[in-house]
Amino acid sequence: MQDGDQRPPDSIEEAAGPVAEDWQAKAAEYKDKWLRAAAEYDNYVKRQQRDRQKQEIELRIRVIRKILPPLDDLDRALEHTPEDLADNAWVKGILLIERKFKSILDDFDIKEIATVGQPFDPTYHEAVITEVSDQPEGIILDEFVKGYTLEDQVVRVASVKTSSGPAIND
Predict the structure, then answer these.
(1) Which of 26, 46, 75, 115 is deepest in the core (most CB within 10 A)?
(2) The pLDDT of residue 165
(3) 136 and 166 both lie in a single domain
(4) Is this structure's pTM higher than 0.85?
């Protein structure tokens, strides 16, 4: 070889020199940006799904809150049905209507809040009356208005009577 001769490059990177390094850096930068954008998009999709689920639950709760008062009235009316009318066809029809209302609650996955005999929990219960009883303090004695939940949210708290504990004799 003569002095002016150069040996051929071993690789493309060597032949391209600093230009190849610039392109590799740009490619890495674009790949990083793309990965970040893809992750942001995935997070956006998940957030939208959570928001839709939350809106669906809120809508269910709003609908059920409108249905509960007539259902309560129907329950109270049926509780006071005279015994001699219990086998009446009209009363049986009203019972069927009540069952349809309750099936709507089941379809919406609405659960009744447990009350009588349970410890009072202000998250789920509203104490309307407290009375002396042989039960320990804070135990629910009676239920006036049923409470309901949907998943982990309270649709309506239960109105209850709680025990203040046994009477203290001086």
Answers:
(1) 115
(2) 86
(3) yes
(4) no
